[in-house]
Amino acid sequence: MTSDSPRVTVTTCELSVAHPEGQRQLLCDITAPVGSARGTLLIAHGFKGYKDYGMFPHLARKAARHGWAAVRFNFAHSGMTRSDSTFERPDLFALDTWNRQVADLEQLVAAVRAGQFAECPRKGSVVLFGHSRGGLAAILAAGRGVAVDAVLSASAPKDPLRFSREDRARLRDEGSCPVESSRTGQMLSIGRQFVDEVEQDPESHDPCVMAARMISPLVIVHGDSDETVSCDDARALAQASGRKPVLVPGGTHVFNVPNPFDAEDAASPQLAALESVLLETLDSV
Fold first, then answer.
1. Domain locations in the chain?
2. Cβ contact 283:257 at 8 Å
3. What is the 3-state secondary structure (H, E, C) of 95-131?
4. Which of 50, 101, 167, 177 is 20 to 30 A from 147, alpha carbon to alpha carbon?
5. Which CATH number, 3.30.160.60, 3.40.50.1820, 3.40.1280.10, 1.20.1540.10, labels domain 2-160+198-284?
């Protein structure tokens, strides 16, 4: 454990999670207030992302200074390790599916509820924050019954299969489809099982259907200048949950935050708006 400030500590740990091919590891960083936390915030990254990407350490510290333990983690099949410079496990990336991400979230929530993390209060509220694809995974998890007290989804798409017709055909014919990481320059692969699982069970992979089924509150926030996912997706997800989306003026897909970003740097106006929604969500449970 390392001391982050007089009020905040950061702990690194691993959680073993079960998957069809065997046990995997969720690499976690827990940012927590000194003393007892009021609840736990889980931070789920997006496609080709990782726990230390851009805004996530900053949001974790903001939550910790607000009295919450914030758990950042790499999805088990993200392909990322604790090295941010490259995807050291492209073999795991190729196995990723929505079901595997939901399984990660389910087991992470269960670990918090069981008291496996000393920094996280066993009987405190659990709020799930997901960005982009992580936001969609959070909605699927809560809609399928994973017990969280609220979900905050930022910049999430409404379509679980954002593939071109050509890429879908390639997945079916060749069993994989290449995708490049602009951050590392690596050529990664998406496996056919990603599409197969959605097509075999479209309802449980439909975030609008799952949003409508959620028992816990769902908050949708989206930058109105998002260059990656349309604001119409935010409107559709929010409508399915019976709420209105929070649209951040001038907000890009990453709320105008560069990567890397020093967690102590001043927030952009768009990130500050997201922080405000996050803290309001934490205070509401």
1. 2-160+198-284
2. no
3. CCCHHHHHHHHHHHHHHHHCCCCCCCCCCCEEEEEEE
4. 50
5. 3.40.50.1820
Cα 219-222-226 angle, rounded to 5 deg? 165
